[in-house]
Design brief:
Immunoglobulin-like; 3 helices; cell junction; palmitate; immunoglobulin domain
Length: 337
């Protein structure tokens, strides 16, 4: 039944990059014996074995149906405008990783039937490659040169080159020129320069540049001492702030305690001037009833008892009027005439 109709395109594997367009060929020949209607059908067997074969595009009854498979809707088309001429090839545009799988082309024209399979592999080009130095770029130090693409399908190939000073790569690096990482031991100033790293896979390549500048060692002791001094000064400043805050809180607490100890029902103390005057007035009354012989000693004794702190100023002795006596009078048993 298949002798009359045959597909001339051999089975093959096609590799394309993500985002590109894949051309899947399917050319066939007919014979005069094939008189039935022409039917062309493309199916996909996804890489996920859990999914069954699904139709992605169909030509039948002189019409094209391309909405069978949602993942490829709008991205799969016949390449020929005249399918009866013997070309059933298709294009799959804007390739995605989900498009990976086995595609099968089936051609029917009674009594002839034929089919061929094409394996499609979608790869990701290397992109977003970054070159950098991992470590300190100082003379005598050890560090690494790294080349890392952001994305890219495996396997990946690397190639390092030195672009500046017309110098070749150091001999010790030759064994690692095809690796993503170059380990540098006991670096010298001769290693300084501009380097390139090229990353490749089967569908594309990407490149990055690296400027290496090997310099004398920095004064680490001075940096460490400066860091220590700065830390100590910061600690001292923090200590002073804490001390001042603590002192202020103690003063506020003391003022509150003194304020609460004052009773509102205690009358204010009498003024010192009033106290002194009252004291003097009472002594004046006492003196008026004393005899002249006792007046001097009594006044001295009484005035000496007045507390000095009860006066705002030193009180003056009161001026007493002279005592009048009628003669004769008696004192201590003696009659005075």
């Amino acid at each position: 039944f298949t002798r009359s109709l045959s597909i001339t395109t051999p089975e093959q594997m096609i590799e394309k990059a993500k985002g590109e367009t894949a051309y899947l060929p399917c050319k066939f020949t007919l014979s005069p014996e094939d008189q039935g209607p022409l039917d062309i059908e493309w199916l996909i067997s996804p890489a996920d074995n859990q999914k069954v074969d699904q139709v992605i595009i169909l030509y039948s009854g002189d019409k094209i149906y391309d909405d069978y498979y949602p993942d490829l809707k709008g991205r799969v088309h016949f390449t020929s405008n005249d399918l009866k001429s013997g070309d059933a090839s298709i294009n799959v545009t804007n390739l995605q990783l989900s498009d990976i799988g086995t595609y099968q082309c089936k051609v029917k024209k009674a009594p002839g039937v034929a089919n061929k399979k094409i394996q499609l592999v979608v790869l990701v080009k290397p992109s977003g490659t970054r070159c950098y130095v991992d470590g300190s770029e100082e003379i005598g130090s050890d560090f690494k040169l790294k080349c890392e693409p952001k994305e890219g399908s495996l396997p990946l190939q690397y190639e390092w080159q030195k672009l500046s000073d017309s110098q070749k790569m150091p001999t010790s690096w030759l064994a690692e020129m095809m690796l993503s990482v170059i380990s540098v031991k006991n670096a010298s100033s001769e290693y300084s320069g501009t380097y390139s790293c090229t990353v490749r896979n089967r569908v594309g390549s990407d490149q990055c540049l690296l400027r290496l500048n090997v310099v004398p060692p920095s004064n680490k002791a001075g940096l460490i001492a400066g860091a220590i001094i700065g830390t100590l000064l910061a600690l001292v400043l923090i200590g002073l702030i804490i001390f001042c805050c603590h002192k202020k809180r103690r003063e506020e607490k003391y003022e509150k305690e003194v304020h609460h100890d004052i009773r509102e029902d205690v009358p204010p103390p009498k003024s010192r001037t009033s106290t002194a005057r009252s004291y003097i007035g009472s002594n004046h009354s006492s003196l008026g009833s004393m005899s002249p012989s006792n007046m001097e000693g009594y006044s001295k004794t009484q005035y000496n008892q007045v507390p000095s702190e009860d006066f705002e100023r030193t009180p003056q002795s009161p001026t007493l009027p002279p005592a009048k006596f009628e003669y004769p009078y008696k004192t201590d048993g003696i009659t005075v005439v």
